[in-house]
Design goal:
Order of helices and strands of chain A: HHEEEHHHHHHHHEHEEHHEEEH
Strand order of the largest sheet of chain A: 2-1-9-8-7
Distance between the termini of chain A: 30 Å
Structural class of chain A: alpha+beta
CATH class of the largest domain in chain A: Alpha Beta
CATH superfamily of the largest domain in chain A: DD-peptidase/beta-lactamase superfamily
Largest interface: A-B, 36 and 36 residues
Strand content of chain A: 5-15%
Oligomer: homotetramer
CATH architecture of the largest domain in chain A: 3-Layer(aba) Sandwich
Largest sheet of chain A: 5 strands, antiparallel
Chain lengths: 322, 322, 322, 322
């Protein structure tokens, strides 16, 4: 029964991918990061993974892409484990801003210049600077190890993408030096940036993304490993941040019309974490993680086709936290 | 069994009210609204109402207070019913801002000056201007009738509070004239302000507040009336807005650490809407509405003791949408 | 000799008016004030008046137009005489902003919300509110009497323009209510606005404007009346404000490339005050006042042809305070 | 006759230095630059130099100090000579801002992020990046050579001050990377910063400062060398900038109450350029340059005693451009 049901659902999901793929034409690949600009804008892929290792996937599922801003959720969780919540919250707030992800204005206009949340670049750079480790390499290894626990395989940094971003990271350098000046950076600027830009360049496919989402959805508990990878409180906090700030300055509309904790990246990645209680009537009644990839993004930075696909899925399957 | 359980829980709730009442000393009654400044800052009350008409309440539950910003949720829902979602969303966005509730900056700094969300004053005034009706009185009657359906009794405007706010509404007038100038007001300024300030002055007790919360929690369906008072989609949207923008510029922290859709007012009111799926392990497994009153507010505008009480309750009862 | 010289210069000035008149096509009449939108955009006129009653004029010199923002200099001087400099400076600063004339942002972003200077609308409304008088009419009479002393004839308010602006003054009302809220308004909002909008609607021709400029250039001393109409210190202060803030957010460029104290209005009026020491080599070696009218304005609010004409004149005649 | 007059004036000037020296107590040495923090806050010195090599000086006139922001005027003039005015003005505007000297907000809030003027740090860094030269050293040599022509002796960079600022230049680095990102930097960030911070660390005494002021006052013409060192138009522009933006965000008040083109530095330096036509009744009727040093600065960055001394001098000697 379950299998049949799943098969028919799988069929539907495959159809939805093709239905929403053409919407990519309303967006374009991030052009300010050379290595991203060359991607095929019409690609679209999705993976949905439940706790009993059940997965549905469709579209360009073997395609590799970089985490970009999706990594911000991962390092935030890691920093909370590493330093403890009070230490982290002293250096980064958890308030949404309504501003673009690379905005610098609030660092000056609000005293004492504490970044507003870990999902905008300023806050994410601060978070990366907090990770323990004596070198950027050690910090990156720590991130990769944490991801390995979640996705079940060793991921790696796409050096070409990293180099591409490193060369053109002037705006992020500006943010980082500002943070350093106001005391909200925990290590030298170039170290923090190296960690930050390398974490952004970690390569995954949609199934990996879905696995990360599943552990977050599951309050930090890994259902296959049967291990609590991070505290429930941190997982709840991460999901709250994904809802209030996860989809750049369209987070409000995403919450209002889709209603799931999600985090996007300018690579076209979207990670969603669907707790069991928010998907009781879906084919994944025990919750799931969702990974989506569609490199054509809108002016705000979210995958055009990816958001449409996720909205359709959430509506059809009645997945909503509200 | 249920009753005994409830009784012991009721006892706990009463204890928590007394435990958190002293925190009021860390806040003070809103002093810029003369009629609110005279309230007893040490008052604290809570009501929790479930769909089977089961209520727990404790503290100063007979005390009457005004809705203030809590009314913003009500009029937003009403405007959506009245005008349809597209009409409303053309005139007010649903993005959080990180700014104070009475901020005017974004109306100038972001083109075309559309207010960012209906939970800040600018957006709420726009919403009030959209309500259909040929006079402020007719619009207020419509709001009161809508509330009557939810709480089961006729509420009324506290004229003294209204007059008090009307006389000192310079900042709100400034916002309203700005909105009028940029085309985001649907009726004359003075009419919109009269509606807005009268809705803020509607008087309730914590049980009334809890009933409103219950209907919102219940996706617009009134469990006693067995009627769908407003569409499910509007209810979900309202809850999303409460999470991203409901607790002024502490909404992010509230979502992060409490995790419930809620809306506060400077009168010290807090309305929370707890969907059933977010309270599966609580004494209210079918969901509930929560009304809290504690007039001593913090610098951001939220009831000091009220927030602490709600946080404790949510933690103890494992109520959380994330 | 002087007469011949003057005649040849007069001839030149007439030629310049025709030379620069076509530049009006690069601008347009202020369209947000209905009564201004109907003006003939190709009109251009200039009057230059020296202390010995010598005047050169050319172009549409009989055309009447309203003072608009040029009135801000006049009421600032009057308020200083009326209330004394310390009183005035406690309520309005004298710093340039780089912002548009009707900007509201700084009233919120800078504590305590004191308007930055009397040449932007916020500051000018505060100044108008400070004028003594028991009614708007009395205050306007005071302004008209002060102007009469300078120009030698009774001026009057163009009621049509006033009514036109009064009906559409939403942005100015927004500014005024904001100022009232933060304590920087000295009389009720509607009174301050009536005075402000009526002073803006006072009608003059270019010769009148030049006479006002002459008295300011002359440090407050009226050369024909042989009377000190206002203190030298106030005149210096007014000229400094005209240089730092007089030409809206093009004041810096105007000072840099023209180098004369000047104030413009959206009616296309420009008033310049040329002290004797800044015009030693010009046909007006004892200084002069300049009035220009060219209703086609640029996006910033300055007369397109008027600025070009004034720049040419200042360059040719070597008039520059720097 | 002249000598006697001068002697009595000299006597007066010496008295004024002692009269205003105690006001230093209302300020303090810039504490964010370690090498400046150690200065004796009670020092005060002035030099006034006229075109016939006549100098009056008083106070701690042998004290050496660094130019800091005063250097911004010098490099702006040099860049205009080097690149031509159109090239320079394409990269930096000439509008005052009302913001603090190190503000970054406008680079984001105003498109396309062109710095508002060359007297704030953002604009000054852009200017330094424009200087021709294949290395920072070559650019600095060019600045030193230009200064040598004006002051008649080879100046040098205080390496200790430079190193001190270089180590702590996070805010300036933030500005520079932002400018690089938006295309308003003409050379690599570290090069531009090295030039900028070295020009800030050039060491002078008050007589040197007065000589620079004299050449600017004199429209670029060096009276002793009898050479036009830079074009008159550039000199006028520099003086206009000093008036609208020279004294940080107190420039408006300085112009209003002192009325002279001046530029200050956080070292406590003030440079004033008094054109002959603005000092007709002073002991320097052919104009003069003024150099002042008083290291105790106010919160805005201007020498407390220095401003008071200059105001007194300007008032007593009737020096004012307005």
């Amino acid at each position: 029964m379950v299998t049949e049901h799943t098969n028919s659902q799988q069929h539907l999901v495959s159809g939805w991918v093709e239905e929403f793929r053409p919407f990519s034409k309303n967006g374009q690949c991030a052009n300010y990061i050379p290595a991203l600009a060359e991607k095929n804008p019409l690609q679209l892929a999705i993976s949905i993974v439940g706790p009993s290792n059940n997965e549905m996937k469709a579209g360009d599922t073997t395609e590799l892409f970089t985490l970009q801003s999706v990594s911000k959720v991962v390092t935030f969780i890691l920093a909370c484990m590493d330093r403890g919540l009070p230490y982290v919250l002293e250096r980064v707030d958890v308030e949404p801003t309504g501003d673009t992800f690379n905005s610098i204005i609030r660092l000056e206009s609000h005293r004492p210049g504490k970044p507003f949340n870990p999902m905008i670049n300023a806050g994410a750079i601060t978070v990366s600077s907090m990770l323990s480790g004596i070198s950027p390499q050690e910090k990156i290894e720590k991130i990769l190890y944490f991801l390995e626990q979640m996705v079940g395989k060793k991921l790696k940094v796409n050096e070409e993408v990293f180099q591409s971003e490193w060369q053109t990271a002037n705006r992020n350098r500006s943010l980082a030096y500002y943070l350093m000046d106001s005391g909200f950076l925990d290590c030298p600027v170039e170290e923090a940036l190296e960690v930050y830009l390398k974490q952004c360049a970690i390569e995954v496919n949609v199934s990996d993304l879905a696995m990360i989402g599943l552990v977050i959805a599951n309050d930090g508990y890994h259902p296959q490993l049967k291990t609590q990878l991070f505290p429930k409180q941190v997982a709840k906090l991460a999901k709250a941040l994904m809802v209030t700030c996860g989809m750049y300055n369209a987070s409000g509309k995403f919450s209002a019309f889709i209603g799931l904790p999600a985090k996007s990246g300018v690579s076209g990645a979207i990670l969603a974490a669907v707790p069991s209680h928010a998907s009781l009537n879906s084919p994944f009644p025990d919750g799931c993680g969702i990974g989506i990839y569609g490199p054509a993004i809108d002016s705000i930075g979210n995958s055009v086709a990816g958001v449409k696909l996720l909205k359709h899925l959430a509506t059809e399957w009645d997945m909503n936290i509200f």
